[in-house]
């Protein structure tokens, strides 16, 4: 893992997803292949449903031609707070109830094993892991939260560039190039709204006591492996890549919060 890693009892994570982008794999469009995948994940993801997904549109395709709709399979955990989606262009695992990397890694392992069994020889174009954090000041409804108490001042520096103005929100983005073909995109900002997570996500969301237009600080971290050419699907390699991608995401989160925030996320009794 990474130095300073800590598992928080009240982490501000609201959504985590891992996506393995595939070269177009037509076998997934066959009912027998999707059924085989379903059997492979059923013990962990027992709630099954058929879905439809848009085919990846090639650059040379005429823009006037509507995208093709293809069959897909989604399977949920019993509480519907985690799911796995298989379509011809990708395998995705997501959750709104992330507790620690090891549990999510176990979900991913089940999905990878089922894909290896049902679609042997698939080719991988990209692997990405995304962590969406939404930090809200507990018990505070003021329009101007004291963000320096909660997040690193380096994320707030631009808010003071115009002394004659009042920062009513902010958003920044940094792209980090890591070793080899690994990258980490970091989007952060002071947001007014309900969430930055797509409202169409299929997994069950946790109910929030926050008003619809509450104020929160978003830390949206997307680590990904982008090889120069597709590689043969290997579950063990994908697991190692996701572990590697998890590290910079954790480091960025730790660097973005203050000690006051850590105490709150730990659930310290004096908080």
Commentary on this structure:
With 271 residues, the chain is α+β, with helices and mostly antiparallel strands. It has one domain. Helices cover 22% and strands 31% of the residues. The chain contains 4 helices and 10 strands; from the N terminus they run βαββββαβββββαα. The protein has helices at residues 31-41, 101-118, 235-256, 259-266, and strands at 13-22, 47-54, 69-76, 82-87, 90-95, 123-135, 170-177, 182-193, 214-225, 231-232. Strands 1, 2, 3, 4, 5, 6, 7, 8, 9 and 10 form a 10-stranded antiparallel beta sheet that branches. A hairpin with a 5-residue loop joins strand 3 (69-76) and strand 4. The chain is elongated and about 60 Å long. It starts with 12 loop residues before the first strand and ends in a 5-residue tail after the last helix. It comes from Streptomyces nigrescens. This is TIGR04255 family protein.
Give structural attributes.
ten-stranded antiparallel β-sheet, 271 residues, alpha+beta, 4 helices
Radius of gyration: 20 Å
Estimated helix fraction: 10-25%
Distance between the termini: 28 Å
How would you characterize the largest beta sheet?
Answer: 10 strands, antiparallel
Tally of helical runs:
4
Question: What is the beta-strand fraction?
Answer: 25-35%
> pLDDT average, as an integer?
89
Q: How many independent structural domains?
A: 1
Low-confidence stretches: none
Helix and strand run:
EHEEEEHEEEEEHH
Global structural class: alpha+beta
Protein name: TIGR04255 family protein
InterPro entries: CHP04255
């Amino acid at each position: 893992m990474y130095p300073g890693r800590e598992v928080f009892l009240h982490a501000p994570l609201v959504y985590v997803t891992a996506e393995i982008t595939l070269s177009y794999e037509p076998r997934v469009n066959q009912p027998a292949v999707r059924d085989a995948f379903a059997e492979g994940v059923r013990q962990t993801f027992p709630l099954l449903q058929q879905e439809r997904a848009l085919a990846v549109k090639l650059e040379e395709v005429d823009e006037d031609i509507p995208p093709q709709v293809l069959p897909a399979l989604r399977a949920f955990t019993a509480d519907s707070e985690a799911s796995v989606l298989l379509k011809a262009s990708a395998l995705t695992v997501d959750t709104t109830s992330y507790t620690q990397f090891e549990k999510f890694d176990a979900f991913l392992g089940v999905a990878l094993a089922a894909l290896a069994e049902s679609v042997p020889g698939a080719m991988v174009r990209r692997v990405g892991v995304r962590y969406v954090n939404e930090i809200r000041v507990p018990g505070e409804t003021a329009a101007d939260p004291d963000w320096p108490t909660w997040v690193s001042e380096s994320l707030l520096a631009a808010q003071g560039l115009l002394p004659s103005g009042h920062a009513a929100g902010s958003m920044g983005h940094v792209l980090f190039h890591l070793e080899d073909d690994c990258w980490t995109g970091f989007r952060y900002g002071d947001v007014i709204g309900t969430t930055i997570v797509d409202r169409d996500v299929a997994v069950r969301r946790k109910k929030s006591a926050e008003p619809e237009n509450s104020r929160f600080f978003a830390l949206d971290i997307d680590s990904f492996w982008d090889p120069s050419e597709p590689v043969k699907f290997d579950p063990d390699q994908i697991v190692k890549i996701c572990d590697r991608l998890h590290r910079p995401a954790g480091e960025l989160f730790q660097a973005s919060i203050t000690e006051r925030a850590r105490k709150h996320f730990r659930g310290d009794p004096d908080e």
